[in-house]
Write a structure and sequence with these properties.
Layout (H helix, E strand, L loop, with lengths): L2 H5 L6 H14 L1 H12 L11 H12 L6 E6 L2 E8 L12 E6 L20 E2 L2 E3 L7 H17 L7 E6 L10 H6 L8 E4 L9 E4 L1 E10 L15 H12 L14 H14 L12 E9 L9 E10 L5 H14 L5 E9 L2 E2 L5 H13 L7 E3 L5 H6 L4 E3 L14 E3 H19 L7 H7 L1
Parallel strand pairs: 3-6, 3-7, 7-15, 8-14
Antiparallel strand pairs: 1-2, 2-6, 4-5, 5-16, 8-13, 9-11, 9-12, 10-11
Keywords: Cobalt, Hydrolase, Metal-binding, Zinc
Pfam families: M20_dimer, Peptidase_M20
Cofactor: Zn(2+); Co(2+)
Length: 448
């Protein structure tokens, strides 16, 4: 379908373009699903890091559709890819500029013997798109990639630019992806963003908890294992005390800001009614995960060192510094001396209000395409959304997923959700940026 094809449906008004784009996505749904499958079939596990093959594939796809791909070197082998469709009014001062974003890295597949199908299958069987990244988040990435290319192919006269952003280094909370793009000024002028991260079909995520990850290094005194606990001081035993003490971080009472009380209540009700388990308490508590424990040198030696890594997610009304201070107090209370150092992901709780234009627009599209009662909720995890918000760019997350399989075996998502999400992205771009008459001064300014 071409721009002239849209014109034949009744003019170049926004509603006509909406109908044209939705029809094109339906007609080419197999192409969209094949694109998602092709991305899945390119392994890009992190760790160890982004595979250049996936960024090359994305850049080639963009170049092949008339969008000049920018390969951005994030360092340490991480490659990010950007491309901008200028629309018909790219030069309009003070206008809107939408980013459609996602990450191309995935978590490791783990024990392949526990998968019921090939981890990088990238096929559609019985209505399911299958393979690592199907939910987190190559299906969503395919959606924003496909829609950006479709907007350019049809030469939709948008009232502002759309920038596609594919980043590396997200799954390990690294800084070689979106943080580097922001630092290098490549998102200057962007006024709103959508990340195609997994979500429930009717519930985009508009905010997220903070992240406080730290390492504890505990020392003991070695001795012969046959004499423990009479000889030596076991760092492993001290670590066990530390692990139990740190569970009380969950009991920190947040001073919830008044403006956050409603969305927290809405998010708790969402979990209670729509998730298989009620973990709504995660929204107003510090969660505590002891990620790894490494201690000792041999079974018959009293451990002289033990290192713990701890992952805490921090609600609104609590700051990272509060968590670290309480962790030190709890350790002192049980008599465990430890070196505590922040590692990994660090952020405070953050959100984009439901009244922001990019949120209001996407939620409206969700209600039209997927769920008439759709609404935004908070996220108990963290993502690249925090980097957009720290840069002053309103953002929310919406993407296809079968949530129980994220980061697990047999990852998959419903094929129709991939198509529905692409429709939501297309409507969001059209409605957030609007369209202009290509023959107007604004339209000609953007196409010269």
């Amino acid at each position: 379908m071409t721009a002239s094809g849209a014109s034949s449906r009744g003019g170049n008004g926004r509603r006509d373009w909406e109908r044209a784009l939705l029809a094109a996505i339906d007609e080419r749904s197999a192409e969209l699903l094949e694109l998602a499958g092709a991305l899945i079939r390119i392994p890009s596990e992190n760790p160890p890091g982004d595979d250049p093959a996936v960024s090359d594939f994305i850049a080639d796809y963009l170049d092949g559709r008339g969008l000049a791909a920018v390969r951005h070197d994030g360092g340490e082998g991480r490659t990010n890819v950007l491309a901008t469709y200028p629309g018909a009014a790219a030069a309009a001062p003070g206008g809107r500029h939408l980013a459609l974003a996602g990450h191309a890295d995935v978590v490791p597949v783990g024990d392949r013997s526990r998968w019921d199908f090939a981890p990088f299958a990238g096929d559609v069987v019985d209505g399911w798109l299958r393979g690592r990244g199907a939910s987190d988040m190559k299906a969503g990435l395919a959606g924003v990639l496909f829609v950006t290319a479709l907007l350019a192919e049809l030469r939709v006269p948008l009232g502002g630019p759309v920038t596609f952003v594919s980043v590396a280094d997200e799954e390990t909370g690294g800084v070689r992806g979106l943080p580097r793009i922001v630092a290098d000024g490549l998102l200057a002028g962007v006024t709103g963003a959508v990340i195609a991260e997994p979500s429930a079909p009717g519930n985009p995520t508009i905010g997220q908890k903070g992240s406080c990850q730290f390492e504890l290094r505990i020392t003991g005194r070695p001795g012969h294992g046959s004499l423990s606990p009479l000889s030596g001081v076991s760092a492993n035993v001290k670590a066990a005390k530390a692990i139990m003490a740190l569970q009380s971080l969950f009991d920190i009472t947040p001073d919830i800001p008044e403006e956050m009380a409603e969305i927290i209540a809405v998010s708790k009700e969402y979990v209670r009614t729509r998730e298989p388990e009620d973990f709504g308490a995660a929204f107003d508590h510090v969660t505590v995960n002891i990620g790894t424990v490494h201690g000792g040198t041999a079974i018959n030696v009293v451990a002289d060192t033990c290192v713990l890594t701890v992952d805490c997610r921090v609600p609104f009304g609590v700051r990272r510094d509060d968590v670290l201070a309480e962790a030190r107090r709890l350790l002192a209370e049980v008599g465990v001396e430890a070196e505590l150092v922040e590692r990994g992901s660090r952020s405070e709780a953050n959100w984009t209000p439901p009244t922001d234009p990019v949120v209001d627009t996407l939620v409206g599209a969700v209600r039209e395409v997927v769920d008439p009662e759709g609404y935004g909720v908070l996220q108990w995890a963290t993502s690249d959304a925090r980097w957009f918000r720290q840069a002053g760019i309103p953002v929310l997350q919406y993407g296809p997923a079968h949530l129980p399989t994220i980061h697990g075996f047999n990852e998959r998502t419903r094929a129709h959700q991939v198509v529905d999400s692409a429709k939501v992205y297309a409507l969001t771009a059209l409605r957030y940026l609007d369209t202009v008459d290509p023959g107007s001064a604004a339209g000609q300014k953007g196409t010269n």
